[in-house]
Design a protein that fits this description.
alpha+beta; six-stranded mixed β-sheet; 29% helix; 31% strand; elongated
């Protein structure tokens, strides 16, 4: 527009010079036309600026100060970098102070403007604006996948109420508040009650801690948490049934900790290990309450079988009828379930027979006492099925149940001569 005005001015001046050749008049005319042109140009500039302000700014997204921001294209300045190349800078950075503070970091998030090309989410590209509204861009797809992966990880790391309860039980067991205290064993070894708590074995660098297992127990696996800074060496002592397996443990440095699981053909040992610069346990062994209970149970089963076998043999023995003595007096309350129905002896043993199942139905089985020198002496007998077998002959005995005023008794008296 200014160029057109300038051309028109030049034409006007040329015509004026042809009409008014006098220099003074020409100078005066130039001044008048120049002032008119200046006023007209200022009005044009003002109207042009007003119209420009009414139009929307042309914004572009650029990277500035490591962030993505949108700026007016008129505020961009093309500058030269250190190598002579071109770079973009802001002409009025103060205008974008708020935007810079809240702008996304470069490379994070999605652009607000549509790109020239869009991704179909499968690695392909298409012109911008051609994808459907339901489709997503590659960046959107990556963000969605990242969110899903984080959701899966978060779910895996989140404890349920039942899991928290299990952890509480582990912590409670780890505190060992109700554990059986350790004791001193052979050669000063620490004796720990197996399974009452998870023991913490104190070791020391340059020293060996000996874990002594039960005689006859064979190791099937040793699984340490740290096999680099700890060494585990097998050993054994004794022979035959007395042979014992040993696990020799040695740390390579102080102030470290780990755990180890030792599997055997009988049980699993779980041990916590710590290394100290000054303290350590030379040897550790175990006692086994469950084995003691099993041994007593086996012993009682064996004795019961022996009694049953001995009674069954006694009941099937052959004897001369002339040796049997059947004359016994049984005196007691008939209401007692365990009152014998008959008593006899064969000259060596005495047999007391009850009603079938009476002894089993009784709340308390009676004990047998024999009268000797006016004293009641407990007698040894074997119980099997519905019979007591006494390994002796007595003149007078009693079956007693209960104590004090609630005591019931049945007196057995052998009549006649032996």
């Amino acid at each position: 527009m200014k160029k057109m005005l300038f051309s028109a001015l030049c034409s006007l001046l040329l015509c004026h010079a042809l009409v008014f050749p006098v220099s003074g008049e020409c100078s005066e005319t130039w001044e008048i036309v120049s002032n008119d042109f200046k006023n007209f140009a200022e009005k044009l500039d003002n109207s042009s600026s007003v119209s420009q302000k009414s139009e929307p700014e042309e914004l572009v997204e650029i990277e500035y100060d490591g962030k993505l921001i949108k700026v007016d294209i008129d505020d961009l300045i093309l500058m030269a970098d250190g190598e002579g190349g071109q770079k973009i800078d802001l002409g009025y950075p103060e205008k974008y102070a708020d935007q810079l503070r809240s702008a996304r970091q470069y490379g994070v998030g999605l652009p607000d403007s549509e790109p020239d090309f869009e991704f179909d989410g499968l690695g392909g590209a298409m012109p911008a604006g051609t994808r459907d509204a339901g489709e997503i861009t590659a960046s959107e797809y990556e963000d969605e996948q990242r969110a899903r992966r984080w959701a899966d990880v978060f779910e895996d790391l989140t404890l349920r109420q039942i899991d928290e309860k299990a952890l509480e039980l582990v912590k409670e067991y780890g505190e060992a508040k109700g554990a059986v205290p350790p004791s001193t064993g052979v050669s000063g070894s620490v004796v720990i009650t197996y399974s009452s708590y998870t023991p913490k074995i104190v070791c020391r660098p340059m020293y060996v801690t000996d874990i002594i297992l039960q005689p006859g127990e064979a190791v099937t696996g040793v699984h340490p948490g740290d096999s680099v800074r700890w060494t585990f060496v097998p050993s054994k002592s004794g022979s035959g049934e007395a042979e014992q397996t040993h696990v020799l443990i040695k740390p390579l440095m102080a102030d470290i900790s780990t755990n180890v699981i030792v599997n055997t053909d009988r049980r699993t040992y779980q041990l916590d290990l710590m290394s100290s610069a000054k303290d350590f346990m030379p040897s550790v062994s175990f006692n086994y309450p469950d084995d003691s209970a099993k041994a007593w149970s086996a012993f009682m089963d064996e004795k019961r079988k022996e009694r049953e076998n001995s009674v069954s043999l006694a009941s099937g023995y052959s004897v001369n009828p002339e040796d049997l003595h059947l004359d016994y007096e049984i005196r007691g309350k008939d209401s007692l379930r365990w009152k014998p129905v008959r008593v006899w002896d064969d000259g060596i043993k005495t047999y007391i027979q009850f009603k079938r199942g009476a002894a089993k139905r009784s709340v308390e089985a009676p004990v047998l006492v024999v009268f000797e020198h006016k004293k009641e002496v407990l007698a040894n007998y074997r119980a099997a099925e519905d019979m007591y077998v006494v390994d002796r002959i007595f003149d007078k005995a009693a079956l007693i149940a209960g104590t004090g005023a609630q005591q019931d008794r049945v007196v057995l008296t052998r009549l006649g001569k032996r």
